[in-house]
Design brief:
Elements lengths: L28 E5 L8 E2 L2 E2 L8 E5 L4
Length: about 60
């Protein structure tokens, strides 16, 4: 079974938000501030849809 942003609860994969490029802990990735909400976790009065309200996204780091 592959990981999707809306995987059911109880799955052995962490929930990914739309802005995540990989699961947390994946080698070569790290947390970054969400580019949409600038780390606040909110857009107006609503949770940010890109980061799921966390203010963080998982992105690839470094490398050439």
């Amino acid at each position: 079974m592959s990981s999707t942003p809306n995987e059911p609860a109880g799955s052995d994969h962490p929930k990914l938000n739309p802005g995540d490029q990989a699961e947390p802990g994946t080698p070569g990735t790290g947390e970054n501030l969400c580019p949409e909400c600038k780390g606040s976790g909110r857009i107006g009065a609503m949770p940010c849809p890109t980061c799921g309200g966390t203010g963080k996204v998982i992105e690839g780091i470094g490398g050439a």
